[in-house]
Amino acid sequence: MHVIGENEKNHEKAGLSMKTTPFVFICSALIIGTLCSEQNIAIAFWNLACISFLILGFTLHLFRPKDNLHYFIYFLFLFTQLGFINSHIQKTKDTSFTSPQSYTTQCEIIEISSNGKKWNKGIALVKKYTNKTKKLSDEINEKILFYTDSFSSKTINEGDLIELKSQIQPILNKGNPGEFNAVSFWQNKGIRALTFFTNLDYQILSCAKSNLKHDVKTSVLGDFQKWLPKKHLGMSIALFLGDKSFLNEEIRNAFSAAGAMHLLAISGLHIGLFVWIIFSFLRLAPKLFTRRIALLLSLIFVWSYAFLIDFPPSVLRSVLMFSILSIGYSVKGSKNQLNILFFSASILLLYNPMYLKDIGFQLSYSALIGITLCYTPLVNSVKLNNRIIKYTWSISALCISAQLFTFPLVLFYFHQFPNYFLITNIGVALFSGYVIGIGLLFLLTAKITIIANLLGVLFSFSLTTLTLFVRKIESLPASVSKGFELNIYDLLYLFLICVGIYWLLFQKRKPFAGGILMVILAFSISAKRFQQINHKHLVLFNANKFSCAYYDSKNIYFFHDNLKKNKITTLLKDYNTVFPGDIIISNIGESNYELKSKKHSIVINKNNKKINLAVDDQNYEIQYRQNLEPKSKIKTIGMPWVENSNIRLNKAYFFNF
Predict the structure, then answer these.
(1) Cβ–Cβ contacts within 10 Å for residue 85, how many?
(2) What are phi and psi of 615, to 5 degrees?
(3) How far apart are CA 318 and CA 299, in angstroms?
(4) Could you say which of 8, 186, 596, 618 is the most buried, measured as most Cβ atoms within 10 Å of its Cβ?
(5) For residue range 121-158, what is the model confidence (pLDDT) as tens digits?
(6) For 101-209, CATH number?
(7) Where are the domains of the chain?
């Protein structure tokens, strides 16, 4: 049953027109220009396209002078050009560290985590460097990723200047199925190289001066460590400082499988609750804090908080949007949320075009576009009188709206989908205010012993309740669907279908046609997954010791040469998301193995430290060392560092059956 009300009228204002939503077109033009720049389009071709664009505008102006379409063409041209030029200017330069070499560098520590792990991650700014072939360089100011031992992570601090002697190498993907794209992730942060070092490899040249941001972070971390059980430390730091390095793998996997990982990534949910809590608290004294003053102080708080956690894109987007919305409502200006959404995106892309490639940025804006366009008509499509059912439906409508444009990205980046996302998000909506509200009050009163002790217990209880709920969802049968491997064309195809569904259901009011398109969407995804999980193959992994897996659409037979347990876990976790199945692990150092089907056979054996692999009628010898002798009749498979082999495992290699 369709209901028309005030919300419906507001939704109609969100219709796409140059008059009501100019920033939709501005942002779209910026994105087109940025994408063209990222594709390294030749300047000559780009100039030709720009001239053609201008000629089109002049032609329209001459032959249709009363039509304002030519102004629209000029408008798009201006911002497309701006996006192209801005992306060119801010594009990350190639790294100075193009091959693995030993360097002596002067580095300023920008970020460092100290979570007690064997290796702790950080970011350093290399100011100068030298190696065997190059004297001390001029200022280069290039960021590098580093991993250091637990002792060093507690000794050096953000802002310290150190002299470091270590091997620096470019960041490379291993090319194994389902693995995280580290190159793209770090390049978006302006980082292209990494290094490992211990306390023996550096000396501190100068210590950091007193830093308010560092002191506040240290104080917050100290409060968590003092009042909370160790098992809740990782979740509390992720919820309030945005640092997920303290989370253990069990918690990560549970939240990921249940579809609640967004709760552990600071975003609009957290910022909105912070604004509401601070605003409500200040309004308890209305004579001291008027609505505008309370709102201003709330915004100052969230901007200070964003500065404290170094302005991650999702937080910057949320704070900017809340600020614009709040100011707009205060001065009775535009309340077009779609326009405000794209206005904030335009500002962020002008500030840093690389945000466009950030996964959090993409997911965040996709979810908000879905909510802005679909939530109001969806929630009003059913008329309910019962308050509890109505509230449950409103949360469900919110989750469905957010998922409409985010699930293609989830399948593309993470290769899996949480089947019970709706149940999870209803629970998260109920728990999140309670958890974040108590956590915020705990931090604000952490120096008052009696209150901190009480709120610490309540906060721990809320985290325990939330964790139990998420683990219960994760333990349900078929909680996660795995086996989605999409390319960029699949992603665009799914987005086009989602746009079509929105257009038919919410704009044209054609439920039958929209339903058919939804069936097409479901069929397309199912067909793609069916093709993926029925792909029988033997894959050889890029690892420091020989390892391979045979996949028969139901089982993963994994073989390895004394590979460490954590390496096996990492390889299989990534591989299993793309090719799901029951895992059977075997060590080839303990026995020989033979797998046979009607058409194919695989034999793996290890004799006298030599590994031999036979695939059907072809024999291979696994090479661990460089072999300068002429190749024998038996073909060789070389490890990543072995160059003179028939097959080199510097990425995964497939034998397709």
Answers:
(1) 14
(2) -115, 110
(3) 11
(4) 186
(5) 999 999 988 877 666 566 788 899 999 998 898 889 88
(6) 2.40.50
(7) 6-90, 101-209, 215-357+419-482, 488-533, 537-656
